[in-house]
Amino acid sequence: MSTVIAKNIQIGTSGTAAQNFTWYQPATPDGTVRLGVGNSGGTTGDVIAVNSSGVTVTGVISGTLNSTVTATTQAAKTANTTIATTAFVDQLRSLLTQSTAAGGGTLVIGDRGTLVAVTAGVTVPANIFAANDVVTIYNNSGSNITITQGASMTLRQVGTANTGNRTLAQRGLVTVVFISATEAVISGGGLT
How far, in Å, CA of 128 to CA of 135, rounded? Predict the structure, then answer.
């Protein structure tokens, strides 16, 4: 085995610095070896830093690998959406059930992405949810309930010109998809 003694070791020969990596020691040695993007002597950002405490990965993933690693939040539907946490993936596998106060009530931001089981009427409020938010409502009773269009909200029944309050039959299930903070579309079984 041979030993290389150098302050910087460049990996890659591209004329474009952003396509090369360099293993290097910081200008002021701190016991850390780093892998950065860029040419030897001119890195533009650390990707990995290694020291006696562990490995730190920066960029889309940050944290030390000998403890908790967290994913940086990225905008949805972009080239940067590359990581999903286990909790997020688990939520996609099943909707979370939660009941609202007194069996019904007004939807709240915590209801986003969940199945809300109710036994009384529900109000869909304006200016709480954002575009692309989704709430599923299950009427867990033996009677019809009213899904009320909140003030300044337009609640559209899918596939019709109907807006306003809707009736959900006993054991009916509907999904509310928010088009904006003040407009939503509702569809499902038992909806009139």
Answer: 12
Residue type, 127: N
- Strand 96-98 relative to strand 114-118: parallel, antiparallel, unpaired? parallel
Q: Which domains does the chain have, with CATH numbers?
A: 8-85 (no CATH), 95-191 (2.60.120)
Residue of 151, 97, 99 whose CA lies nearest to 124? 151
How is residue 58 written in tokens? 């920066």
Report the length, in residues, of the chain.
192
Mean pLDDT of the chain: 77
Which residue type, as a one-letter code, is found at position 143?
S
Do the strands 61-64 and 54-57 form a parallel or antiparallel pair, or are they unpaired? antiparallel
CA distances from 177 to 80, 141, 185 (A): 25, 23, 5
Report the share of the chain in percent with pLDDT over 90. Answer: 41
Q: Please give the torsion angle defined by the CA atoms of residues 156, 161, 165 and 171, in that order, rounded to the nearest 10 degrees.
A: -80
Task: Flag whether the pTM goes above 0.70.
Answer: no
Q: What stretches of the chain adopt beta strand conformation (E)?
A: 8-11, 21-24, 33-37, 45-51, 54-57, 61-64, 69-71, 96-98, 105-106, 114-118, 122-124, 134-139, 145-149, 154-157, 166-180, 183-191
